[in-house]
Specification:
With 244 residues, the chain is of the alpha/beta class. The chain is 29% helix and 23% strand. It has helices at residues 24-33, 50-60, 85-96, 105-108, 136-145, 162-165, 183-186, 191-197, 227-235; strands at 2-10, 38-44, 63-71, 77-81, 112-114, 120-123, 149-152, 177-180, 201-203, 218-222, 241-243. It has a nine-stranded mixed beta sheet, with helices on both faces. It has a two-stranded antiparallel ribbon with strand order 5-6. A hairpin with a 5-residue loop joins strand 3 and strand 4 (77-81). Helix 1 runs parallel beside helix 2 (50-60).
Amino acid sequence: MKKFKTDLHIHSCLSPCGDLDMSPRRIVEKCRERGLDIIALCDHNSAENVEPAIRVGEALGIRVLPGMEINSKEEVHTLAIFGQTNQAFAMQDIVYGSLTGVNRPEFFGEQVRANEFDEVEGFNDRLLIGAVDLGLEEIVREIHRLGGLCIASHVDRPSYSLISQLGFVPPGVYLDAVEVSDPRWAGSEGRGILETLGLPVVTSSDAHFLKDIGRRVSVFFMETATVEELRLALLGKSGRSVEM
């Protein structure tokens, strides 16, 4: 098995809370500097910056997975991570069809679409920071139907998390893993909660600024850098595994 250093939760300048320096090129360059092998670009409710990030990743030897962080109507944040851009864009169509409101940059921040050359190509006017009119169960079902991984975001945080909003995994919601922001929580006060959830655990940076990329990583032991291999590692199957 090969060792892959991963950060599966990074935002770009498309996220209204993301720093404007978080262009696709700068993100991938920082990932290379930090020695990362696999990342997932997961902007709020959108995948519009994934293609340029993938192209830069291909040039610099970083596997960039297309994804997004979806905010359910229960205001639970969930990572959708795919192997192919067409899968991510199909999920984006579903999300956009259930997302209302117009962004107000003066309050929430700009939502910049950028290319691989650090050039601004436009702005997304949707209220990407908002919640979609889809329940968590429906979101998870659609992610899996499209072949993606579904990871509950930052379950150790006091807001916008599975634990803070619901306190449990509802029947019919089949998550692939949960993400913690701080591994120390997982080994202390969060241990009992995670045991009750009974799901694989990963940690990621949730970076909104370049300096935060790779501050939290998970190490996957698997054959190749694919979503299918990530899935096997989360399940602990065929010799694959994951460590925080």
